[in-house]
Amino acid sequence: MFYYGVDYYPEHWPEERWNLDASLMESAGINVARLAEFAWVKMEPEEGHYDFSWLDRAIEVLGKHRIKVVLGTPTASPPMWLVKKYPQILPVDRDGHIMGPGGRRHYCYNSPEYRKLTRKIVTAMAEHYKDNPDVIGWQIDNELGCHESNRCYCDNCLIAFREWLKKKYGTLENLNNSWGTIFWSQTYTSWDEIIIPRRTVGSHNPSLLLDFLRFVSDSTIDYQNLQIGILRRTCPDKFITHNLMGLFGGLDYYKLAETLDFISWDNYPKFRGDVNPAGIALSHDVMRGVNSGKPFWVMEEQSGAAGWEIFGPHPLPGEIRLWAYQGIAHGADAIVYFRWRTCRFGTEEYWHGVLDHDGVPRRRYEEVKKMGEELKNLTDLVGSRYKAEAAIIYSYDIRWAFDIQPNNPSFNYMEQIQRYYAGLFNQHVPVDIVNPLSNLSRYKLVIAPSLYLMTPQIRENLERYVREGGTLVVTPRSGVKDWNNVVTDKTLPGELADLLGVEIEEYYSIPGDERYQIKGIGPEKYSCKAICELISPKSAEVIAQYEDGPFAGKPAATINRFGNGEAIYIGADVDIQYIESLLFWLITRCRIDIIVMGPKEVEVTVREGEDGVFIFLLNHSDKAEAVKLSFPGSIEEIMLEPGDVKIIKR
Ligand code: GLA
Ligand code: ZN
To answer: DSSP 3-state helix, strand, coil percentages of the chain (rounded to 5)?
Structure first.
């Protein structure tokens, strides 16, 4: 079943309105609603006194209109009575200041009292709804980690951090050696000397900082798992999901996803104004990647102008539909719009939904409805898998290590991922996002931007992939450090030297906005910024050279034969033009199947399932565009109106 839904807040509206809402939803093809994720105070108005009667009635009204419900556990917004009674649950910032209530997410994930209160409300909800057939699943909390809320520096977290470290390192000696605490006399002589990185004079030890970010992530996931445990025991036949935030970096989403049935995520393409189709596509692919490639849900899909104190431009005609289909094209089996009706009060007065404040259905409603009708013909798509022959490696640990030490102010791990992704997107090559230890054997091409942290296991995984015939691209500042954020004593690229067939003689931080020229295989000139490295090829061949800068005339990129495959090393932070030309060359070289010829504004993806192959064509341009689709033995020309979507089933 394809789920098509809205995020609905019955507690914000008079009960007399609910029936009209539900019937408008039903006429638009809506068959699921997410409810209650911020309604703690209405479900538990005082401690231990539960009132689910209003929610029962709302679920019943929706049920009469054949709309199922996903219930959110309400722990993202602890009520005022709770904070007054248990002020010790409040989080503490880096400066040691308590973060008061007033917004949301004002709780510490390691607070024993908050965990107890969480257990109580989640158990009460689970018991109450376990046999309700209209409730099909649960959403844990809401956007865990949002507003950086999981970086808490309170004493509970300090104690939990020490325990986490004890488990990880076993002995203090091991911790001291792994972190290099001899530097600046930071050697710990007892566990209770270990600090949490509150504001200090100068900067903290980078190994401590990286472990703190891992601890923060693990604490959040542990808090999530506390809720999952209760729900699994009480409601074994309902699914459990959580709404993630795309490219958000405050949590290891690979780990977070492990205990969920599937992940969902919140997609706001036009929140800040301009829409970047490749950027949204990447977010979908990251989300599918952390979900092990399975279909996912979009739990909040933009349906109106978005913003709090100020709001951005609203979706133009056709955009809601285009973005929703883009999600489906990337592997979503459900689209849920945020929110049904724009709220009249509170922080999000200007975060617009399908209906405006007055509740009158207008253009945006009609667009949602039109798509609802179309989706009725698409049910055989559910469960089908995204098809990609290229992959990009994405690691949270590496991202965090670069957050701690960017190396150069304009060197950015995520920006590199975005640039290489765009290079493939612009040439109609679908991509999977994978973690460094994933099985890579199904890919013809793998891009591994800046493998800054390295382990022997990752090296082996990459070597196996290339040895067996894969093509791998690695970019600068790779193999620099071990997993504890300590620099290797090997010549760079450290563990990767054999695979890449090079040694790095020198690396250089490019000042300010300076750019150096690079010449590749063709006559064109390209540029690099931020970081450049002097490569000394051992077994590798040179494929690009610096034209100026400190390494003028020297190699900037190489290719190395390794087993049956090839490993390419790019020694500089190169521009998108170089990336596109390199990828163009590699796409043919490793025989990636390109099924569409046409402008880059037309996006193409493929989903394969038991009921067939679905080819999605999405025209992100404001002009009509023509593309040629090549199938074995035939070429079809297809016209797409501005903003239009076509799904071809084979
Ligand atoms: C997020 C949250 C929602 C809402 C919207 C709009 O995605 O999950 O609760 O706050 O943003 O701000
Ligand atoms: Zn805390």
So the answer is: 35, 25, 40
Complete domains list, the chain, with CATH: 3-150+222-301+332-382 (3.20.20.80), 390-590 (3.40.50.880)
533 assigned to active site = no
Please tell me if the CB atom of residue 77 comes closer than 6 angstroms to any atom of ligand 1.
no
Which residue among 37, 143, 389, 533 is the active-site one?
143
Q: Which residues contact 167 (CB under 8 A, 6 or more apart)?
A: none
Task: Tell me what pLDDT residue 634 has.
Answer: 87
The verdict on pTM exceeding 0.85 is yes
Atom from ligand 1 closest to the CA of residue 245: 7
Find the DSSP H helices in 432-502.
Answer: 456-467, 497-500
> Is 472:493 a contact under the CB 8 Å cutoff?
no
**pLDDT tens digits for 84-130?**
999 999 999 999 999 999 999 999 999 999 999 999 999 999 999 99
Ligand closest to Cα of 142 equals 1
Q: What's the mean pLDDT when you consider all of the chain?
A: 97
Q: Is 142 in the pocket of ligand 1 (CB under 6 A)?
A: yes
Report CA(245)–ligand 1 centroid distance (Å): 10
> 533 C-alpha to center of ligand 1: Å?
42
541 assigned to active site: no
